[in-house]
Write a structure and sequence with these properties.
Blueprint lengths: L2 H11 L17 H20 L3 H5 L3 H8 L2 H12 L5 H13 L2 H11 L1 H7 L23 H9 L8 H10 L4 H26 L1 H12 L1 H27 L1
Keywords: Membrane, Transmembrane, Transmembrane helix
Protein name: Membrane-associated protein
Length: 244
């Protein structure tokens, strides 16, 4: 390992001292700090905004929904639409892969900029350790090994994998963007192929189910919004109890 590589690795792993525990940087933020910080929040806001739209699009344009959300239900219905000739299969696959990967670089960049600070924040605890952190192998004081993080990035589409933590950890340990995207692409292709292929095999019944959901989109959307609000309230109360 060259001296330059060692210096870069040390810079990436270094945790900058913080002025405020809810911000991942110390001192005056740079333009890149602000860009990345607002990008992270926009990603979360975008994901929340998609909740009420899912029932409207699932039975009318599941390919677009797959590109917007990267969810397995939309991929499945998109595959079913491809089976009956309503959408090209290649487009359904590409939409699913894009939907999974479109915002992952934001969290990789956050890990690159702020190291363990952003990882701990994403895990649900201020970087200064004033509140207990979730017991995750990706949310410790030191980064996990590269092979663990690389595996987490590859299997990130799986529901139980904390995607933001995996992506930020990749930036934390200095994983280059091409390597990060290559590993992420492998997992995205496998996950999209699985559910799009499932929908293609099911065909018309999956199309009819999606259309039925869209027919009742108003009520499904209201349920999603109310459910999301209640979930946020419960999470806020749990966080308050942990701080007490």
């Amino acid at each position: 390992m060259t001296t330059e590589t060692q210096t870069q690795g040390e810079r990436v792993r270094k945790t900058r001292p913080l002025d405020k525990p809810w911000l991942p940087w110390g001192g005056a933020p740079s333009k890149m700090d602000l860009f990345c910080w607002y990008s992270v929040w926009l990603v979360f806001a975008f994901s929340f905004a998609m909740w009420p739209l899912k029932p409207w699009l699932i039975g009318t344009n599941p390919v677009l929904l797959a590109a917007l959300t990267g969810k397995q239900t939309s991929m499945t219905v998109a595959g079913a639409f491809a089976r009956i000739g309503e959408a090209p299969l290649a487009l359904a696959l590409a939409a699913g892969v894009f939907g999974i990967m479109k915002f992952s670089w934001v969290f990789w960049l956050a890990g690159r900029l702020w190291g363990g600070n952003i990882v701990k924040l994403l895990a649900g605890s201020p970087p200064d350790g004033t509140a207990p952190r979730r017991r995750s192998i990706l949310a410790r004081d030191e980064p996990a090994s590269r092979w663990i993080i690389g595996t987490a990035v590859t299997v990130a589409p799986l529901p139980l994998i904390p995607r933001p933590l995996a992506f930020a950890s990749a930036g934390w340990v200095g994983m280059g963007l091409p390597a990060f995207l290559a590993l992420h692409l492998i997992g995205a292709l496998a996950w999209t192929g699985l559910f799009t292929g499932l929908g293609y095999a099911i065909g018309q019944p999956a199309v009819e189910l999606g259309e039925t959901i869209s027919d009742h989109a108003v009520w499904v959307s209201l349920t999603a919004v109310v459910g999301g609000f209640l979930l946020q309230v419960m999470m806020a109360r749990r966080a308050a109890r942990r701080r007490a």
